[in-house]
From TrEMBL:
SUPFAM superfamilies tied to this protein: 4'-phosphopantetheinyl transferase, Thiolase-like
Gene that produces this protein: FAS-2
Native organism: Thanatephorus cucumeris (strain AG1-IB / isolate 7/3/14)
Reactions catalysed: acetyl-CoA + n malonyl-CoA + 2n NADPH + 4n H(+) = a long-chain-acyl-CoA + n CoA + n CO2 + 2n NADP(+); a (3R)-hydroxyacyl-[ACP] + NADP(+) = a 3-oxoacyl-[ACP] + NADPH + H(+); a fatty acyl-[ACP] + malonyl-[ACP] + H(+) = a 3-oxoacyl-[ACP] + holo-[ACP] + CO2
Ketosynthase family 3 (KS3) domain boundaries: 1-318
Stated name of the protein: Fatty acid synthase subunit alpha, fungi type
Length: 543
């Protein structure tokens, strides 16, 4: 999504703002010996109205998954947004206090466990185990079903939906609870609290009413969400430099806040000749006149106010919180895609500037009149590059959802059973995300050094570890031995590719002893995985 705003300076608008005494008076300012770049003085005792400005500001918003897959340059994480129209009144320019609602809650006596990252991590891991168990139960029911191929795909789709719901509940904390303020909830998603907000960017128009109302609102917000007293937040008053556009105001502020959070530098208000003494009572805020070089900013909060008591707020986080959630291989792949995209973008931009083709006017949609109804009625309709280099819809549109077939053949054959003299069959299906391959203790207990070296060298170590874990579980089931409990190590079962790259099983210790007792000399393995799950079939065979 592309979001932003723009406006142009107009004589009519400027005249009416002056009539409301909202703008600084040029004659008065010059009489006091001030230069034009000193006319806008937010939060000062001498502020006398805003300075007109014009321009545009635009942001490109997309999901984290899309941004990672495309290799886009990620400037920040938009963790929370809110708009409010808190009241109606006869005064159009009077400032409102509706943004206070971001801190609305009935504070409980005891901290809520759902706000604790460790608690949610345990719950999510448990839920993923439940989903994996549910898949196994469903696949067992499909053993004699003639339509098993299609139904296996349906099971995987449902498992993906269940995991998405679990992530929404324990990851993104979706929903509402009167005991949790919306802003507190947004911070808790990332394991943060009110004390982790390192900077705020105020609307700061340099008018008498707004610059007193807005700090008051922030002070009440931080009081409500229990920021630690004595830990004031530095304030950015960007309009001391940019003046006050109308359409682009919030877009400019968001861009400035992103720069501050990314660089760790909080720009000072260069025109702050004397901070208004009335702001002293808001001790959660500090108004610097010089830039502050911090050791890093985790989160920034901004507010924007408009006529008619309309307000908005946004919380952004440093991109490292997203990058930290990626696996090492995912992050390396993103860096490579980002580098490739940056080079392509530079080339495209250079060509547009040299050929004066920055703006390309389109005179038709990406579909023909004959295709219009089909495109609008088909949720699977997607554009692709045509021969002319433009995106358009093909004449033949997809009519059925694409199904990941990686696991189907393996599972269907295993469910139907095998022919011949075999000692046992074991099938296991796991969510990749349910296998804690990020945990070094888990990896060391359950995988040999050779397995660890092999998996870590793969394009997706997470999927490789999960495949071998599911394989070990399937071997365990095929051997039909008594379980030693969930904490038993699986390193006695080793799965590595042979000289032809085909996965093979080597048994050691107790696993080999159990196989020898049952007369199993060799274990055949069939392995596959999709983005959702890992599926294995292991068959113990006698000599």
């Amino acid at each position: 999504m592309i979001a932003g705003g723009f406006d142009d300076f107009s004589e009519e608008g400027s005249f009416e703002f002056a009539n409301m005494k909202a703008t600084s008076n040029t004659e008065t300012e010059f009489a006091m010996g001030r230069e034009p770049n000193e006319f806008s003085r937010p939060t000062t005792s001498t502020r006398a109205g805003f300075m007109e400005a014009q321009g545009t500001g635009v942001q490109v918003l997309m999901s984290a998954k899309t941004a990672i897959e495309m290799g886009c340059a990620i400037q920040s994480i938009v963790a929370f947004t809110s708009t409010s129209t808190d009241k109606a009144g006869r005064s159009i320019p009077a400032p409102g206090r509706g943004v206070l609602s971001v801190a609305r809650e009935i504070t409980p006596k005891q901290p809520l466990r759902i706000l604790d990252v460790d608690y949610r991590t345990r719950q999510l891991a448990f839920r993923r185990k439940q989903i994996s168990q549910w898949m196994e139960n469903e696949l067992e029911d499909l053993r004699d079903d003639p339509d098993a191929t299609e139904l296996v795909a349906e099971v995987e789709r449902e498992a993906a939906r269940q995991e998405k719901d679990a992530l929404a509940t324990y990851g993104m904390l979706e929903g509402s609870d009167p005991r949790i303020a919306p802003l507190r909830r947004a911070l808790a998603v990332w394991g943060l609290t009110a004390d982790d907000i390192g900077v705020i960017s105020i609307h700061g128009t340099s008018t008498k009413a707004n610059d007193l109302n807005e700090p008051h609102v922030y002070h009440d917000i931080f009081t409500a969400i229990q920021r630690t007293p004595g830990n004031p937040v530095p304030v950015i008053a960007q309009k001391n430099l940019t003046g006050h556009p109308k359409g682009a105001a919030a877009a400019w502020m968001l861009l400035g806040l992103c720069q501050s959070v990314n660089s760790g530098i909080i720009p000072g208000n260069r025109n702050a000749d004397n901070i208004d003494p009335a702001l002293r009572e808001f001790d959660y805020l500090v108004f610097p006149s010089r830039s502050i070089h911090t050791d890093g900013i985790k989160a920034g909060l901004m507010t924007s106010f408009g006529f008619g008591q309309v307000g908005g707020s946004a919380l952004i986080l440093h991109p490292r919180y997203l990058f930290g959630a990626l696996g090492a291989s995912e992050y390396r792949n993103y860096i490579e895609r980002n580098r490739t995209r940056a080079m392509a973008s530079y080339k495209a931009m250079s060509e547009m500037m040299t050929t004066n083709s920055l703006v390309k006017i389109k005179d038709h949609p990406p579909f023909t009149p004959e295709l219009e109804a089909d495109v609008l009625l088909n949720p699977l309709a997607r554009t692709s590059l045509d021969k002319s280099g433009e995106f358009s819809f093909p004449k033949k549109l997809d009519r059925s959802p694409k199904v990941a077939k990686e696991n189907q053949d393996v599972l269907v054959n295993a469910l139907k059973g095998v022919q011949g003299d075999f000692k046992g069959v074991g099938v296991d299906q796991e969510l990749i995300s349910a296998v804690p391959s990020h945990n070094p203790t888990f990896v060391k207990r359950n995988f040999t050094e050779s397995e660890i070296t092999y998996c870590q060298a793969q394009p997706s170590p997470e999927a490789s570890f999960a495949a071998r874990w599911a394989g070990k579980e399937a071997v365990f089931k095929a051997l039909g031995v008594k379980s030693k409990g969930a904490g038993a190590a699986m390193s006695d079962i080793e799965i590595l590719p042979d000289e032809n790259g085909v996965p093979s099983v080597k048994l050691h210790g107790d696993a080999k002893k159990a196989a020898d007792e049952k007369g199993v000399a060799k274990v055949l393995v069939s392995l596959s995985h999709s983005e959702v799950s890992i599926s294995l079939k292991y068959i113990g065979r006698p000599c």
